[in-house]
Design goal:
Elements: H1 3-16, H2 19-26, H3 30-44, E1 49-51, E2 56-58, H4 60-83, E3 92-98, H5 100-117, E4 121-127, E5 141-145, E6 154-161, E7 163-167, H6 169-175, E8 190-193, E9 204-208, E10 211-215, E11 219-223, H7 226-234, E12 240-243, H8 244-252, E13 257-258, E14 268-274, H9 282-297
Parallel strand pairs: 3-4, 3-5, 8-11
Antiparallel strand pairs: 1-2, 5-14, 6-14, 7-12, 7-13, 9-10
Keywords: DNA-binding, Transcription, Transcription regulation
Organism: Aromatoleum toluvorans
Domain HTH lysR-type: 1-59
Length: 298
């Protein structure tokens, strides 16, 4: 048995919660993962994991073993990094997760500049508005906006998104120009956006002269993906509220028209988030720095 490999596999199973997820993230066949865990338990003569058909839980011995070996694995990674030339020329594969609209409108159009600077880094870009579990899904970092739900994660603020509210000329020709946010509850309609994780509809927010209005709005369609939200707005299905950087190009082309311009919408902070117990390798560190530069110049 390769004990070091078995330790890495054991840690990944604990973090992922299933043998299948661990095998996928490590690029190993599931039977190999199972065999390594069995060999490790046989070597230690203790049961580390309780297995069910759907999930793996850690025994008391397994939890104690994980706590100590996880620190050991992190220290070994740090030693390797300090003795190699990876700090000067980082290489390898990183897994990043971002919201759909951030990927399509901001990161992907500029990613060539990152690869020009770091040609040996492969970026696996998970795209979607579902919040991932960084540990279980083996994600190095995520780019997300709004309030941070898990305060145990490390978050670096990289920017601020300002919002505007828009509709298509065809929509306005049919429904007219709204004069007050309350009209979004009727007779006007909006495009709804609901969380892929909770199903909660995100409210539209407006502020003016100390008055604050928050409403879900009257919608005929709601979606849970930011690209689909934009597509619905451009199709004239309702009024939409999104980032200025995303909407302004459509405004310039005449595809969208700003509405309720005498009201403002509170901006939201944008963060790069990564697990606190994971060594921030050179390849991840340079990506985080590049993302920060990208949003600073946006």
């Amino acid at each position: 048995m390769d004990q070091f490999l078995a330790l890495r596999v054991f840690a990944r199973v604990v973090e992922a919660g299933t043998f299948t997820k661990a095998a996928d993230s490590l690029g190993m066949p599931k039977p190999t993962v199972t065999k390594l865990i069995q060999s490790l338990e046989s070597h230690l003569r203790v049961k580390l994991l309780n297995r069910t058909t759907r999930r793996v839980t850690v025994t008391a011995d397994g939890a104690a073993y994980y706590e100590r070996t996880a620190r050991l694995l992190t220290e070994l990674e740090e030693i390797d990094a300090s003795l190699s030339n990876s700090q000067a020329s980082p290489k390898g594969r990183i897994r990043v997760d971002v919201a759909a609209v951030v990927a399509s409108r901001i990161i992907l159009p500029a990613l060539h500049s990152f690869h020009a600077r770091y040609p040996d880094i492969q970026v696996d870009l998970g795209v979607g508005d579902r919040l991932v579990n960084l540990i279980a899904d083996n994600v190095d970092c995520v780019v997300r906006g709004g309030k941070l739900i898990d305060e145990s994660l490390v978050a670096r603020r990289i920017g601020q998104v300002e919002f505007m509210t828009c509709a298509t000329p065809a929509y306005l020709a049919t429904y007219g120009m709204p004069t007050h946010p309350s009209e979004l509850d009727g007779p006007h309609r909006v495009v709804g956006y609901f969380s892929a994780g909770t199903g909660r509809i995100s409210p539209y927010e407006f502020e003016r002269d100390g008055e604050r209005i928050e409403l879900v709005g009257n919608y005929a369609v709601a979606v849970n993906d930011s690209n689909a939200y934009m597509a619905a707005g451009l199709a004239g299905l309702g009024i939409i509220q999104s980032g200025v950087a995303v909407l302004e190009e459509h405004v310039k082309r005449g595809e969208l028209v700003p509405v309720l311009e005498d009201w403002t919408t509170p901006g939201i902070p944008i963060y790069v988030v990564y697990p606190p117990n994971r060594h921030l390798s050179a390849k991840v560190r340079v990506f985080v720095e590049w993302i920060a530069e990208l949003f600073a110049s946006a």
